[in-house]
Amino acid sequence: MVRNTNIHIFNNYYHASSAPYKQDYAIGIRYQAKVYSEKNYFSSGIKYSYSGNDSKHGTLWVVGDADESSKNGKGSDSYVIATEAPFTPSYTWTAEDTTNLPTSIPSSAGAGAVLSEE
């Protein structure tokens, strides 16, 4: 959930089909938030990729996300699908293509995953 700020969310793999709890949404857009979602992957276990349900919520800009969810968003009047970012983050990055995220993220993230500098 995001409120009162600008945030850049990129290269995440949202997967909840094996979770013991209900996964209603992955990214919540709340009051005065600007969310720049770039090249994230939402599996079929996520009910809604994005959530925001009235004009007081913030706004979401989606650039290049991959979505297997049955519904893309909850409260679709509170976000837009865009081809350009709403702001420019103050850092440099290279977003990985979404095609590889279901494989690359689980194999290199989480407890016990240590990246070596050798």
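That was protein one. Protein two is written in the same sequence-then-structure order:
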Amino acid sequence: MATQAFILGKDAKLYYGAEEAALGAMNVIGNVRDVKVSLSADEADVTTRENGGWKGTAATLRECTIEFDMLWKPADPAFAAIRTAFLTSGLVELAALDQDRSVSGAQRPKGSFSITSFNRDESLTEGIKTNVTAKLSVFDEWVEV
């Protein structure tokens, strides 16, 4: 039997919980569509004359942004938690894992996030949805199940 050499986006899970919640106490957000996790680092110029004419760069501070869409369902507890974090400038714990947390090898960042964008999309031929941008405020851990 061939082993799977890839992970499908449909198998990834986005978990949420109260600020600083443990992964096991977090709930999966079932009302989520496309998710994009962006990880990047600022750069420091570490060029020296002895670098043979090549510019030297070192990674410094890292950042994490999670962007996702949810159907506009105000009664959904996950939707309410995200909306409340936005409206109160509070934090919500998020973990965007590439697989279910019960699967060995699942990984990704976990931490407390600020909701910096909570836009509503009312396309004529779609269900109303919100486009969410969450930016890492407090890094907890890089989850590796």
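The longest helix spans residues 77-88. Keep this in mind for the problem set.
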